[in-house]
Design brief:
Number of strands: 10
Order of helices and strands: EEEHEEEHHHEHEHEEH
Shape: globular
Radius of gyration: 19 Å
Number of helices: 7
Distance between the termini: 43 Å
Helix content: 25-40%
Structural class: alpha/beta
Strand content: 15-25%
């Protein structure tokens, strides 16, 4: 029998309680992701993409269905999950090194203090922040702070990395540079990633699969297996095949928004 996927959202239905009554967000949604893969999730604003991240992280429990990690049902927050968001939320009173060490303080670590610092310095080198460990967040640019946030999200070597629009607030050049940084991290670090994004180019460049959600209450409307290899460069987005795939994804978003001709 084939190995179970590392992430499995099985027939998830969920609604938020409001004064006006239940607000349906997800409807019989099923997504699976194999170990070491990168799944990009796109869809209309407000369709429930961020709700998915909270379910996978164990911060919420679905009304119906189940979330599985490595075949075990998720019922509470998991130490094996790392998260990064659009706002890096770095603590100004801590240095960059101490900000990145924070997850190890929270979840605990078998590494010595010296080994923990060595781990941080290695990650900073990977993301191009060598020499910035002793700086404060306010001394870094927005892109540099997001690089530090990525380091913090994987410092404890999580099995699953959740990225909730981490590059959305950055300028185009910085955003594309960070896309390439993510591929560099994947070559060195071992994690299974779920990315929430509104940027179809980002989804195509980073994802092994792109999942398009329907309008709310969301279900899986369309899934694209991305034909690009692991060793991607930005020029791969400008091939005729990538242009065709972006056109398909744009059409799917129009359908999800109810704007299809």
């Amino acid at each position: 029998m084939a190995d179970a996927p590392l992430i499995a959202l099985n027939h998830i239905t969920h609604a938020y309680k409001t004064p006006a009554g239940p607000l349906p967000v997800l409807d019989d949604l099923t997504i699976t992701a194999g170990e070491g893969t990168f799944t990009a999730v796109v869809g209309p604003s407000g369709c429930g993409k961020s709700t998915l991240t909270r379910l996978v992280a164990g911060l919420m429990i679905p009304d119906q269905g189940e979330v599985m990690l490595h075949g075990a049902r998720v019922k509470s927050p998991r130490k094996t999950v790392g998260m990064a968001f659009q706002n890096p939320v770095l603590l100004e009173w801590r240095t960059i090194l101490d900000n990145i060490l924070l997850p190890l303080e929270i979840v605990g670590s078998k590494l010595s203090k010296a080994e923990q610092k060595e781990r941080v310095h290695g990650l900073l080198e990977l993301v191009g922040l060598t020499g910035f460990a002793d700086k404060r967040p306010s001394e870094l640019s927005g892109g540099m702070r997001q690089r530090a946030s990525l380091c913090r999200s994987i410092v404890h070597k999580p099995e699953v990395l959740i990225l909730d629009e981490p590059f959305g607030a950055l300028d185009a050049f910085t955003r594309e540079d960070l896309w390439q940084t993510m591929h560099d991290l994947r070559r060195v670090e071992s994690f299974t990633c779920m990315l929430i994004t509104h940027d179809l180019r980002e989804a195509l460049f980073l994802g092994d699969q792109v999942v398009v959600l329907s309008g709310r209450p969301a279900t899986v409307q369309y899934t694209m297996e991305v034909p690009l290899g692991r060793d991607r460069v930005l020029d791969d987005l400008y091939t005729p095949e990538s242009a065709d795939n972006l056109h398909i994804l744009r059409d799917q978003i129009k359908i999800a928004q109810g704007r299809a001709a």
